[in-house]
Amino acid sequence: MEIIFFYLxxxxxxxxxxxxxxxxxxxxxxxxLVNTFFCLAIFYVMLHAPFMAAIQIMVYAGAIMVxxxxxxxxxxxGEAERKRYTHGIVWSSIASLLVLFNVIFFIKRGxxxxxxxxxxxxxVESFGHTELxxxxxxxxxxxxFEIASILLLVAIVGAVVLAKKEV
Length: 167
Fold this sequence. Notes:
This protein is an all-alpha fold. It has helices at residues 2-22, 26-46, 50-75, 86-109, 121-127, 129-140, 142-163.
């Protein structure tokens, strides 16, 4: 039953991803992206990582999508003239197929390395996902975490400056 549910959610995720690039309206594309984010959160729940699923929904499906919709409304992309270039679609389709065939080729010929990390199943069950992620963020990955927070602050200040009317 779980495998059927996985394939159903995977199908919805792929269709939603396809709608992101094929919808004419940017708002509809953003809604397709939100649906794809929810499917990814379901995958996290299926992998027994509920904290990551909650973060996926709150950060990506919530905050990031609000920023994307804000930019769409700020730039007024709904009225922009759209031109179709079929040669771009053909070349991008050919490139996508080549990448797909390369991925399939390397997956078929590859093998698992057998490398194991420091965190075992026993540690996850005894400490919990959230505590292990928190320890890793604030000890090993403190600098990238702080750099990401500074980048988000710069993005917020930039959005305020762009949206500000002349005083």
